[in-house]
């Protein structure tokens, strides 16, 4: 397994160029229990200052006797699902294009539920300073765009925007995406260390409330409402721990619907309480800007279209071969009984 962790961050973040060592390690999901016993503890990575759907589900009691074991935070979806594929954690979530790329490299994982997306409340915006001369895709040539990670949702949306703006591949290569930790992205824009800041969720709304910035475009404007990312588990984990997987996936589905149907103020109050009680020295102030998880389908069920979009996109880019990934192999709703 040491060989997999030696894979450099940069290599992995070029849309998950996984080595054969990483893929082979993915067959040994260390969290799975042997024999008849099924693990009831799920290791995972969190996000600083945010409440993930599994964390919300646990707080609501939906996980029943399944416990979450926090092993640290991440700022990268691709890194998160790599950790799941290699068995360092038991589930991970990322942008669906990264999930497709992971599967294309024959990592034995399956998407089990959607957990975030874009709608009129939950979206990623690409922001510039109000007095910035940047007004179009062509204005981005030679400019720096700050985002949480490379090779994931933010870079894909930027690529689509530039292509629709008529830029050639050569011109697109002159636009520089840079990794900036989400909590520092707004400050980096205001200090003019970057020209464009990708901001979403509470960090976006906090920055907008401060003022002095304007959107260049948003992913919601590009693609409308859509589920953008899924949680994945290894095939081995699902085979060895089907009941645990069902409890987990169903609980996340219930949490999606709870957040959708509960008054916003109540959701924010519960999230704030969760963050305060877990004692990770986090700022809860941005939580007041929370609006939605943005999941398009009821209980996060996967339709396939949200993955097919990225199979087509990656094929057109030449990142995967046509026919390399079968949609039916990518996901399952078998473990999602929320609402049924």
Automatic annotation (TrEMBL):
Superkingdom classification of source: Bacteria
Protein name in the entry: ABC transporter substrate-binding protein
TM spans (from-to): none
Organism: Streptomyces cupreus
Matches recorded under InterPro entries: SsuA/THI5, TAT_signal
Domain SsuA/THI5-like: 57-265
Pfam families: NMT1
């Amino acid at each position: 397994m040491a060989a997999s962790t030696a894979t450099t961050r940069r290599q992995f973040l070029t849309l998950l160029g996984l080595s054969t060592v990483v893929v082979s390690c993915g067959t040994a999901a260390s969290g799975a229990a042997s024999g008849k016993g099924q693990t009831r503890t799920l290791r995972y990575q969190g996000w600083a200052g945010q409440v993930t759907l599994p964390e919300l589900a646990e707080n609501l009691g939906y996980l029943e006797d399944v416990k979450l074991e926090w092993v640290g935070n991440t700022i990268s979806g691709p890194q998160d699902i790599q950790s799941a594929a290699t068995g360092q954690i038991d589930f991970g979530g990322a942008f669906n294009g990264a999930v497709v790329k992971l599967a294309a490299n024959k990592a034995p994982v399956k998407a089990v539920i959607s957990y975030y997306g874009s709608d009129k409340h939950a979206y990623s915006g690409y922001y510039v300073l109000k007095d910035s001369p940047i007004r179009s895709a062509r204005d981005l040539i030679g400019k720096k765009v700050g985002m949480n990670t490379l090779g994931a949702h933010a870079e894909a949306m930027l690529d689509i925007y530039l292509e629709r703006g008529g830029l050639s591949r050569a011109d697109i290569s002159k636009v520089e995406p840079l990794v900036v930790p989400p909590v520092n992205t707004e400050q980096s824009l205001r200090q003019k260390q970057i020209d464009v800041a990708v901001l979403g969720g509470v960090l976006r709304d906090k920055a907008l409330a401060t003022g002095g910035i304007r959107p260049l475009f948003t992913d919601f404007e590009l693609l409308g409402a859509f589920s953008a990312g899924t949680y994945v588990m290894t095939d081995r984990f699902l085979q060895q721990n089907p009941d645990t997987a069902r409890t987990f996936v169903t609980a996340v589905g219930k949490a999606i619907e709870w957040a959708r149907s509960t008054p916003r103020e109540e959701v924010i109050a519960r999230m704030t309480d969760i963050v305060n009680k877990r004692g990770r020295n986090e700022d809860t102030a941005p939580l007041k800007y929370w609006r939605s998880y943005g999941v398009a389908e009821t209980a996060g069920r996967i339709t396939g279209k949200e993955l097919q979009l990225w199979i087509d996109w990656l094929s057109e880019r030449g990142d995967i071969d046509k026919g390399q990934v079968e949609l039916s192999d990518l996901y399952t709703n078998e473990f999602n009984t929320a609402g049924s």
